[in-house]
Amino acid sequence: MRYFIEFSYNGSAYFGYQIQPKQISVQEELEKALSTILREPIKTTGAGRTDTGVHAKKMFAHFETNQLLPENLIYKLNSFLSEHIAIKRIFKVDDDMHARFSATYRTYEYYISLEKNPFSKDSSWQYWRQETLNINLMNEACKILFEYDDFTSFAKLHADNKTNICKIYKAEWEQLGNQLRFTISADRFLRNMVRAIVGTMVEIGTGKIASQDLRRIIEEKYRNSAGVSAPAQGLFLVDVGYDF
User: Fold this and answer.
1) pLDDT at 131
2) How confident is the model at residue 7 (pLDDT cuts 50, 70, 90)?
3) Which contacts of 27-32 are long-range, i.e. CB under 8 A and separated by 24 or more positions?
4) Active-site positions, per UniProt (predicted)?
5) What stretches of 39-101 show up as alpha helix (H) in DSSP?
6) What's the pTM?
């Protein structure tokens, strides 16, 4: 039987979601907890992978087992796991449902703090000593993203992507007091794509890059044409969509 598990995590304590040698990851912690409680080896497949320091407000993974799950499994998992990971729900799905490949869209949010804030240093880009950001210019640039589907210029160099084609559904900046929030949704994302877009948008917001130059950056299909990647701690995976 295949089960989906919905959970969230604070990525500041982990070297990303995906298991990797000699580094602590969210996937490793999750599989260890499931295997211990269910008393059998459990492997999970996540909806995607997040980089070191990136957070998830809503993440999904699937796993398989032939045993009936205990009613208090969520409670047991939350008791076993560290305070950085929270299990929300676990539910049975059809055998062909896949946490990664069945996802129809993903949504990320990126936060920039415009003031020095010790309470958000692990959850936003602290931008308080730098140039003023023009959110109107940044939103003008967002409209240009909808004109394209090849985002090679924002892809991590030497990544193992089979294609750099993505369909962006939403991209916008909002000001929330002394904080900026960038929301972006797409059918899929390339590794480092959101952080590279944010870094480029910030350069547009400060006037270092003209908003219209974003077309040239995208069309060159060259990572070095775009801005530097924004810091990881401001990025959150906030939603993954499925046709349940």
Assistant:
1) 86
2) very high
3) 27/61, 29/81, 29/82, 29/85, 30/5, 30/61, 30/81, 30/85
4) 51 (nucleophile)
5) 73-80
6) 0.95
Q: Tell me, what amino acid is at 199? A: G
- Tell me how far apart the alpha carbons of residues 50 and 25 are, in angstroms, rounded to a whole number: 10
**In Å, how far are 35, 69, 126, 241 from 73, measured between CA atoms?**
12, 7, 38, 24
Summarize the chain as % helix, strand, coil (round to 5).
25, 30, 45
DSSP 8-class letter at 151: -
116 with 44, same domain: the answer is no
Name the nearest CA neighbour of 212 among 155, 153, 142: 142
Q: What are the helix (H) ranges across the chain?
A: 26-38, 73-80, 135-145, 193-205, 213-220
Identify the domain containing residue 88 by its residue range. Answer: 2-92
User: What CATH number did the domain enclosing 153 receive?
Assistant: 3.30.70.660
- SS3 assignment, position 219: helix
Lowest mean pLDDT among 77-86, 133-142, 155-164, 226-235: 155-164
Do 126 and 167 belong together in one domain?
A: yes
In angstroms, the CA 200 to CA 209 distance is 8
169 is in an annotated binding site: no
- Let me know if 94 is a catalytic residue: no
Catalytic annotation, pick one of 51, 149, 150, 160: 51
